[in-house]
Automatic annotation (TrEMBL):
InterPro entries: RNaseH-like_sf (IPR012337), ZnF_BED_domain_contain (IPR052035). Residues 267-319 are annotated as: Disordered. Residues 281-290, 310-319 have a biased composition (Basic and acidic residues). SUPFAM superfamilies: Ribonuclease H-like. PANTHER family: ZINC FINGER BED DOMAIN-CONTAINING PROTEIN 4. It comes from Labeo rohita (Indian major carp). This is Zinc finger BED domain-containing 1-like protein. Signal peptide: none annotated.
């Protein structure tokens, strides 16, 4: 239950002494996790982009014609996995046709990219597969439908459509330290890729529509934060994934305003510290004053580590 998870999250925050801080939450798109984020009042609540891509991709692959195609390919793959003789003949045919000695891949229902891998591998090996199925050395299983020319064309079109999604998923999965700044560029690129095109097959148009319906709007509630994060990341700081120059200018203007506010807050803290020191008779050592000034303008505000200056080094050498 989402309410129970919300209570648990609040308990954890109290245990870690972070209840008074602005805590962020990262989860998948499950309804109970969304309710937990609302109940625990954790903001921002970022939903996993890889899981979001998986959900939208699965919706796209559930278009009737594509679902039927996947079922056909799945039956062929299952036949080869269960028949040692067919596998042996397939290897011989691969060698004759000078194709890579790759095993056919069976997909997993919960992972859209496994269905993509299955189609991609089948397309690579389709000359060997079709020749093997026609061989007199094996006995084809009854009920296994033959692949038509339309099926083969559709396989190629589905692979073409879903390839950018596979690239995005692989990129996210291989990143050792994925950051929130990676989210905005991915939807921006995919939304362009999944726009309707007059040259698309009707089935491909349906797939695009299903993907957009599920994917669009997933991160609208976090759009400003995501744009700021990308602008602060050296990899995306030019915001090339945005076409509107006015939007880019607005993002940088808001960021500049936030930096000014942070600087003013740091100045206010310095003034408060000086006032408190004056009230106590100014009993503060030079060392403490230097430390306060460095902390107010350095690591605590900007997140940079302390650096040893040249003067410090000379001082140590003299001592």
């Amino acid at each position: 239950m989402g309410s129970n998870l919300a209570v648990l999250l609040q308990d954890v925050c109290r245990e870690w002494n972070i209840s008074d801080k602005k805590t962020a939450l990262v989860t998948d798109n499950a309804k109970n996790m969304i309710l937990a984020g609302v109940g625990a009042e954790m903001d921002p609540h970022v939903r996993c982009i890889a899981h979001t891509l998986n959900l939208a991709s699965q919706k796209s692959l559930k278009v009737d014609r594509v679902s039927e195609l996947l079922a056909k390919v799945r039956k062929v793959v299952t036949f080869f996995h269960r028949s040692p003789k067919a596998t042996e003949v397939l290897r011989e045919t691969q060698a004759q046709l000078q194709l890579p000695n790759h095993k056919l891949i069976h997909d997993v229902s919960t992972r859209w990219n496994s269905s993509f891998d299955m189609l991609e591998c089948f397309w690579e090996q389709q000359p060997a597969v079709l020749n093997t199925l026609l061989s007199k050395k094996i006995k084809r299983r009854e009920g296994m439908a033959s692949m038509t020319e339309e099926d083969m064309t559709l396989i190629q079109e589905v692979i073409k459509l879903m390839s950018p999604l596979k690239v995005a998923t692989t990129l996210l999965s291989e990143e050792k330290n994925p950051t929130i700044s990676m989210i905005s560029p991915i939807p921006a690129k995919l939304q362009k890729h999944f726009q309707p095109d007059e040259s698309d097959l009707p089935v491909i148009s349906q797939m695009k529509e299903q993907f957009r319906e599920d994917f669009d709007g997933r991160y609208t509630y976090l759009q400003d934060l995501l744009h700021y994060s990308s602008a602060l990341d050296p990899r995306f700081k030019d915001l090339a994934f945005l076409d509107d120059s006015d939007t880019k200018d607005m993002i940088f203007m808001k960021l500049t305003t936030e930096v000014v506010k942070m600087d003013e807050m740091a100045g206010d803290r310095n003034t408060l510290n000086e006032s408190q020191a004056a009230e106590t008779g100014g009993d503060r050592s030079p060392h403490k004053e230097e430390e306060t000034e460095e902390n107010s303008l350095g690591p605590d505000v900007w997140g940079f580590p302390d650096c040893e200056t040249t003067d410090d080094k000379e001082h140590k050498g003299e001592s």
